[in-house]
Write a structure and sequence with these properties.
Elements (H helix, E strand, L loop, with lengths): L1 E7 L5 H10 L7 E8 L2 E8 L2 H4 L2 H6 L4 E7 L15 E3 L5 E9 L2 H10 L10 H16 L7 H14 L2 E9 L3 E6 L8 E6 L5 E6 L3 H6 L2 E5 L4 E6 L4 E5 L10 H7 L5 E2 L2 E2 H19 L7 E4 L5 H11 L7 E3 L12 H11 E3 L1 H4 L3 E6 L6 H12 L4 E6 L27 H8 L3 E4 L2 H9 L10 H4 L9 H10 L3
Parallel strand pairs: 16-19, 19-20, 20-21
Antiparallel strand pairs: 1-4, 1-10, 2-3, 2-4, 5-6, 6-7, 7-8, 8-12, 9-10, 9-11, 12-13, 14-15, 17-18
Length: 485
C-alpha cells in the first residue's frame, strides 16, 4: 500500500507536496520520495523512512518548480529494505518521465520478459512500479509523431498500458516540459481523487491524491474521483484534459481501504470512510448480540485508532458502556505495515499501553478493524488479561481474512493469514480470547456501499474472488514461493 500525490500550482510546490505526504503517512512508512519539474528540468529526492524525519531544508531548496509529485511507501512488491525500489522512478525517454504508483501488478513476469526481449528496455530493480513506468514510456514513444506532445497521444499511450498491464494501479507521472499525467486501472481498485482551487488572482491549481483529506487540508474543491480506466493530463500552465482510455471498466474499489487503510476523514468513490466504519459497528453489534449476548459484556473497548468508530457504534447499538482502555504511543508506526513478523510483534507493546483501572474484574469486548496475521490480536488479548480483565472477548469489524490480497495490500500468502486454514474457534484459540466474533461478508459489503452508487467491491481477501479475473491458481502458488511480507 502506498500514498501518492501530484500538484500543479502557480507557485513552488515543494512545501505543498511535503504537507500532503504528511497527511498520507499512514499509507506507508518504509520510504518516501518527491520529484518536481522546473520547466524541462526534473529534480528528485528519495529517502528511506518517514516524511518528517527524512527531508531537510537543503532537500526542499533543491526541489524547484511549480509541478511535482510525491510518494510514501510500504512494500507490497519487492523489498522494503532496497533503496533501489524507493519511488519515484525515472526514465529519460521520451521527454523525461517520473512516475509514482499505488497498487500491485499481477503480470510482472510476463511484462519483464516483454520489456527485455521485445521493447529492449532495461529494468534496474524488481519493482512493479519501474515496470509500469517502462510500459508507459514505451507506449508513449510509439505514439508521438512530432516535437509537440498532444493530450490525445498521451491518452492513446495510456490505452495501450491498459491493454498490457494487469492488476491494480493508480499512477501519477511528470512529463518534463509538459505537465502531469494521472491514470487509474480499469477496475478502480486503488483510490485516486482530483481537486481544484484558485490562487489569489484566480488562476487554477490542481491536485491529484490517494485520499480526499489532502484536498480538504489544502483548501481544494473535490472535483471528483478519477474514473476507472480514465487518464487526466494537466499542463504546466494548469489546463486540464481527461479521457476514458479503457474499452471496458468496472468500479470495484478495495474494501480494505474502508476497513483499515484510509483515514476516517477521507471520502472514496463518494463514500465516507467514517460513516462506513460506523455502519460496520452497527452490523457487528447485531451479530455480537446473536452469538454472545449483551449480558456477558461489561464494557466495549476499541483497539486504537482505526477501530474506534466501529467500537463506538457497536457499544451504542447494544447499550453497553464504551471505554478507552488502550492508550497509543503515536510515535510508533502502524503494526500492520511493519515489515516482518518480529518487528510487528515487538512494536505492539511499544505502541499500546493498557490502563488497569478500565480492565480490572470486567468482561471486556475488544473491537478491532480486522485480524490479519493474529500477531497483534494475541498480544493485545494478553495485555488485557495482564491488566486484570476477567474475560476477554474479541470482535473483528471485518470478516476472516482467508486469501492473499494481490492488489496492493501486504497480505501476499495464505500461510501468513491466521484464518486461512482455521475455523473461527481455532483462531479464537490462537489469539487467546474467550470468544471471537467476525463480521459477515454481506454485512461488510452493505456497510460500505449503503447509500452509494457502488455496486461492486474487491473483497478478494475475504472471498477468494479476484475482480480482474486474471489471478490464477498458478500465480497464487508462485506468490507463495516468491514473496512474504
Amino acid at each position: 500500500m502506498c500514498g501518492i500525490v501530484g500538484h500543479v500550482s502557480t507557485n513552488l510546490v515543494n512545501q505543498q507536496i511535503y504537507d500532503s505526504l504528511l497527511l498520507l503517512q499512514h499509507r506507508g512508512q518504509d520510504s518516501t520520495g518527491i520529484a518536481t519539474a522546473e520547466g524541462s528540468t526534473l529534480h528528485q529526492v528519495k529517502l528511506k523512512g518517514q516524511v518528517r524525519e527524512g527531508y531537510r531544508t537543503r532537500d526542499m531548496r533543491n526541489l524547484l518548480g511549480n509541478v511535482g509529485l510525491g510518494h510514501v511507501r510500504y512494500a507490497t512488491s519487492g523489498s522494503a529494505k532496497s533503496e533501489d525500489e524507493v519511488q519515484p522512478f525515472y526514465v529519460n525517454a521520451p521527454y523525461g518521465l517520473v512516475l509514482v504508483h499505488n497498487g500491485n501488478l499481477t503480470n510482472t513476469r510476463e511484462l519483464t520478459d516483454e520489456l527485455f526481449n521485445i521493447d529492449r528496455r532495461h529494468l534496474n530493480s524488481p519493482s512493479d512500479t519501474e515496470i509500469l513506468l517502462n510500459v508507459l514510456a514505451n507506449a508513449l514513444q510509439e505514439q508521438i509523431s512530432g516535437a509537440d506532445l498532444t493530450p490525445d497521444e498521451l491518452f492513446d499511450a495510456v490505452a495501450n498500458v491498459h491493454q498490457r498491464v494487469e492488476g491494480s494501479y493508480a499512477a501519477i507521472t511528470l512529463i518534463a516540459g509538459h505537465g502531469m499525467l494521472a491514470f487509474r486501472d480499469p477496475f478502480g481498485i486503488r483510490p485516486l481523487v482530483l481537486g481544484r482551487r484558485l490562487d489569489e488572482v484566480g488562476r487554477e491549481e490542481w491536485v491529484v491524491a490517494s485520499e480526499s483529506l489532502v484536498l480538504d487540508s489544502g483548501g481544494y474543491e473535490l472535483v471528483r474521483d478519477i474514473e476507472p480506466g480514465e487518464a487526466v493530463f494537466i499542463t504546466n500552465a494548469g489546463r486540464m484534459y481527461s479521457r476514458q482510455c479503457s474499452t471496458s471498466t468496472q468500479l470495484s474499489p478495495c474494501s480494505f481501504e474502508y476497513v483499515y487503510l484510509a483515514r476516517p476523514d477521507s471520502t472514496m468513490s463518494g463514500i465516507s470512510v467514517y460513516d462506513t466504519r460506523l455502519r460496520m459497528g452497527e452490523k457487528l453489534a447485531h451479530k455480537v448480540e446473536r452469538e454472545l449476548g449483551v449480558d456477558e459484556i461489561d464494557v466495549v473497548m476499541p483497539i486504537p485508532d482505526s477501530a474506534r468508530p466501529a467500537a463506538m457504534q457497536l457499544a451504542e447499538t447494544l447499550g453497553i458502556p464504551y471505554r478507552e482502555g488502550f492508550y497509543k504511543n503515536r510515535y510508533v508506526g502502524r503494526t500492520f505495515i511493519m515489515p516482518g513478523q518480529k518487528a510487528r510483534k515487538k512494536s505492539v507493546r511499544q505502541k499500546l499501553n493498557a490502563l488497569p483501572s478500565e480492565f480490572e474484574g470486567k468482561n471486556v469486548l475488544l473491537v478491532d478493524d480486522s485480524i490479519v496475521r493474529g500477531t497483534t490480536s494475541k498480544e493485545i488479548v494478553e495485555m488485557a488479561r495482564w491488566a486484570g480483565a476477567k474475560k476477554v472477548f474479541f470482535a473483528s469489524a471485518a470478516p476472516p481474512v482467508r486469501y492473499p490480497h494481490v492488489y496492493g495490500i501486504n497480505m501476499p500468502t495464505r500461510g501468513e493469514l491466521v484464518a486461512s486454514a482455521r475455523t473461527v474457534e481455532e483462531v479464537c484459540s490462537v489469539i487467546g480470547a474467550d470468544a471471537l466474533i467476525y463480521q459477515d461478508v454481506d454485512d461488510l459489503f452493505d456497510a460500505i456501499t449503503q447509500g452509494s452508487d457502488v455496486t461492486s467491491l474487491d473483497m478478494s481477501c475475504f472471498t477468494g474472488e479476484y475482480v480482474t479475473g486474471t489471478v490464477t491458481p498458478e500465480y497464487l502458488a508462485w506468490l507463495e514461493t516468491s514473496q512474504t511480507s
